[in-house]
Write a structure and sequence with these properties.
heterodimer; A: alpha+beta; Uridine Diphospho-n-acetylenolpyruvylglucosamine Reductase, domain 3; 2 domains; 5-stranded antiparallel sheet; 25% strand; globular; B: alpha+beta; Alpha-Beta Plaits; 4 domains; 18 strands
């Protein structure tokens, strides 16, 4: 299988013909439109190595997240960054290439924080291996993490090693009726205290806070924070993770409204950009269903210390991601040029100019 | 040698006390924390603000003069070793804490701020900066970013890369890079990760925004003795399999235990082959639950003695021996050479067995100190530099240990960096396609190879030469690099 992929990439490199890397196809909506023939990775499947005592799992890129999570669950372990599946057969390769994380992110870390090593094929068809299967490793530049969130533009990920963590023994979700400004303050105050927080969410005047850990610790925190216990909390967080609620629903292609992700300083005050909003990650992500001009949303995100992404919707001319400052844009082009000299991988997916 | 014309241009950029070029002023900068590697710099510059850093880089770029960045000089891989004909750019005077935001849990600091000074400055808010390299009293945050420094608490709290969120850095052609932002992620490639651990090869950092964590409510440590290192190694895996992620999990072998006990009288049991220190921290109730689990696992794993620290005083005493392990071992021989490989934990018994065999083969004793939780092994090779050939033997032996780490699926450096010290072993860990990509990354930032030349990533032809040399058992020549 690997040989077939290498051969196809070498041929595409020789011809300069673009390829679209695709795993389970669960995130085809994400990023800018790209062009080319589909290069599927599903056949590149299987768990290569899993040592619960080492807290390390290695699997091929086409392995489904569901399979990985089921195997980990047998040993009471998990992917702590809680990757979204978006209701599709999401694969490990796509998960890492997109670099997206779920509700636990602000308390446990992001996808990039758990990547220990990758095997990949660069744009000339050269197989490469970076990082490894150990938690501490500072030999050479951290190319493994560079691949996370690069949307396949630097190479085809063929195998990933991840750090995994034990599942908490107990989880409880508390719900509070609270306005937006008070919610943002509470989320940040609590995050600065030794509390077993593992997720936060606010939408339509309701704050939900998940606590994870030893039963005694969770119960003590629950007694301290108050609130109402949320029933069916696992389903609630999974729907949020996968954007399977009406708020996140795919916008019709003709709609001028998009789902925007504004990543901001967690303490940023209410953005006042409209009512349709969902707050996550302790205040650091504000989802907006908005028809405002992209420039206005980007300006607001920048003023709030971060950046704005059109997560779902019709892409503006300069792309769905916030354009980079010239010095950074030049570095991006340099890196792309080195890893994929003929620009065959996912052309335009990250930024329209490469 | 740098030309007088260049030096006078440099002097125009900085106040007189910020440019050192007299030999007696240069000597303190001839090595970093790895004193076996020394080279007197041609000139040392100590800028006092970011604008001066940018101006120095601009001049050096225009004149094609190499630049070696240096922080507090505590590095252990000769990463900040001066290079002939280069400017040594010391960032120690950029040492202001510019902002602390207790609610957002961040601090904005200049690169010369000491690691521990950050935690001290934010302590009043109940916060701290988690990575704690053993040199944290002295080492600076800029150096921590350059090396992706770890410490005792990595398994639970991560390395530097997990605990920073924004950098201001300057490329050699004096372009400002603002990488990351005040949120949890940024648009584009993860250049924050790429710069972290890049050993001063890609850019010069002038500002770091670090993440701060709430101080754990409680920390408690358990000490366990074993009559066999393999049993101790298995106990480590068993603790993790039981679902506990210790804040610190350290192991020492017999020689290290004896040395530490003789030095600081921590009260360690002396009739054992291995000692484990397992610290758990967090919410009060979580710690109680974890201590209970850890004790049960240690007992089931065959510990011959288990003690739980019942007071903060006792906790610090248990740690005192481990924290003094390096200087303690330093009393056993005139010199020691510290290695930094990481291995999958399961390979520990095999690796320790092989190290012990090689110790006999090379006639040099080894004390092993191990960040057991994350597999980072620090064998300390004892030698006497005044005995002709012993330093060389120690280096060869050390190189063999690193190659062994790679052989069992690990890495040549867990936290100290490659620098100049381990550059030869990079040829063991990486094949030419990967090394080529590393050079490509370097070229994307610094095509003229002016930042820290000759460090971290070997040239392909050097690997070929060293490979040949290796067969003849010859010593590595580094022209212009005196060794003693």
């Amino acid at each position: 299988m690997l040989d077939t992929l290498i051969a196809r990439i070498r041929a595409a490199h020789a011809e300069g013909s673009p390829l679209i890397i695709q795993g389970g196809g669960s995130k085809t909506f994400y990023g800018n439109a790209d062009e080319g023939e589909v290069l599927g990775t599903r056949a590149l499947a299987g768990i290569v190595d899993y040592e619960p005592k080492e807290l390390v799992l290695t699997a091929r890129a086409g392995t489904s997240l569901a399979e990985i999570e089921a195997l980990l669950a047998e040993q009471n372990q998990m992917l702590a960054f809680e990757p979204p599946h978006f209701g599709g057969p999401a694969t490990l390769g796509g998960c890492i290439a997109a670099g997206l994380s779920g509700p636990r992110r602000s308390y446990a870390g992001a996808a990039r924080d758990f990547v220990l090593g990758v095997r990949m094929i660069d744009g000339s068809g050269q197989p490469l291996r970076f990082g490894g299967q150990v938690i501490k490793n500072v030999a050479g530049y951290d190319v493994s993490r560079l691949m996370v969130g690069a949307l396949g533009t630097l190479g085809l990920i063929t195998e990933v090693s991840l750090k995994v963590l034990p599942k908490p023994t107990t989880e409880t979700t508390l719900q509070f009726e609270l306005d937006e400004a008070s919610t943002i303050l509470k989320m940040n105050q609590w995050a600065g205290q030794p509390l077993p927080l593992s997720a936060t969410s606010w939408h339509a005047g309701l704050l939900a806070v998940r606590l994870s850990g030893a039963a005694s610790a969770v119960h003590a925190a629950q007694a301290r924070l108050g609130g109402e216990a949320l029933k069916d909390a696992d389903a609630f967080w999974q729907r949020l993770r996968d954007q399977a609620t009406p708020f996140f629903d795919k916008r019709p292609p003709t709609s001028n409204q998009g789902l925007w992700r504004l990543a901001v300083k967690p303490t940023a005050p209410p953005l006042n950009l409209g009512d349709a909003q969902w707050i996550e990650w302790g205040g650091a992500v504000r989802w907006l269903a908005s028809g405002l001009p992209p420039a206005a949303l980007r300006e607001a995100a920048k003023a709030a210390g971060g950046h704005a992404t059109l997560f779902r919707g019709n892409a503006p001319r300069d792309g769905v991601f916030t354009p980079l400052a010239p010095a950074l844009a030049a570095l991006h082009r340099n890196l792309k040029q080195r890893f994929d000299p003929r620009g065959i991988f996912n052309r335009g997916r990250l930024y329209p100019d490469f | 040698m740098l030309s007088p014309a260049f030096l006078s241009q440099l002097r125009r950029l900085l106040p007189p006390h910020c440019v050192l070029h007299e030999r007696e002023d240069l000597l303190p900068f001839e090595s970093d924390g790895l004193a076996a590697y020394r080279n007197t710099p041609d000139v040392v510059v100590l800028p006092e603000n970011e604008a001066q850093v940018a101006a120095i880089l601009k001049l050096c770029h225009a004149e094609k003069i190499a630049v070696v960045a240096r922080g507090a000089g505590t590095g252990l891989s000769a990463g900040a070793l001066p290079v002939d004909g280069a400017v040594l750019l010391v960032l120690a005077k950029l040492n202001r804490i510019k902002a602390i935001d207790p609610l957002a849990r961040t601090a904005v600091v200049e690169p010369g701020v000491r690691n521990l000074a950050i935690s001290e400055a934010v302590a009043e808010h109940g916060l701290y900066y988690a990575p704690d390299p053993s040199s944290q009293i002295a080492c600076s945050i800029g150096g921590n970013v350059a090396e992706n420094s770890g410490g005792v608490h990595c398994l639970k709290y991560g390395l530097t890369v997990h605990n920073i969120q924004k950098l201001r850095a300057w490329t050699i052609d004096s372009q400002l890079l603002e990488i990351g932002n005040e949120s949890l992620d940024a648009a584009g490639y993860d250049l924050l990760a790429l710069l972290t651990g890049s050993e001063g090869m890609l850019a010069v950092i002038t500002e770091v925004t670090v993440k701060l964590l709430p101080r754990p409510e409680r920390a408690q440590v358990v000490l366990a003795a074993f009559d066999d290192v393999a049993k101790a190694g298995a106990a480590v895996g068993n603790i993790i399999a039981a679902g506990v992620i210790p804040a610190g999990l350290e192991m020492m072998d017999r020689l290290a235990i004896q040395a530490a006990e003789a030095f600081v009288h921590a009260g360690y049991p002396l009739d054992c082959e291995a000692l484990l220190l397992c610290e758990v921290d967090g919410v009060n109730e979580e710690v109680s639950a974890d201590i209970y689990t850890v004790r049960a696992v240690l007992e089931a794993s065959g510990a011959t003695e288990i003690r739980t620290a019942e007071s903060e005083e006792q906790r610090l005493k248990f740690w005192a021996g481990r924290k003094a392990a390096f200087p303690a071992v330093g009393r056993l021989a005139p010199d020691y050479y510290c290695m930094d490989g990481t291995i999958p934990r399961g390979a520990l018994p095999h690796v320790l067995q092989r190290i012990s065999e090689m110790s006999a083969e090379y006639g040099l004793a080894v004390a092993n100190v191990f960040h057991a939780g994350d597999g980072n092994l620090h064998p300390l090779i004892l030698f006497d530099a005044n005995t002709p050939g012993e330093l060389h033997q120690a280096e060869v032996f050390g190189g063999k240990i690193l190659e062994l780490c790679v052989e069992v699926g690990g890495t040549i450096t867990g936290e100290h960096g490659v620098g100049l010290e381990k550059i030869k072993q990079m040829c063991t860990q990486f094949a030419s396609p990967e090394l080529t990509r590393f050079h490509d990354v370097k070229a994307a930032f610094d095509p003229g190879k002016l930042l820290n030349p000759g460090k971290a990533v070997p040239e392909l032809h050097s690997c070929a030469e060293w490979g040949a040399m290796h067969i003849h058992g010859g010593r590595l020549p580094h022209p212009g690099l005196p060794r003693f």
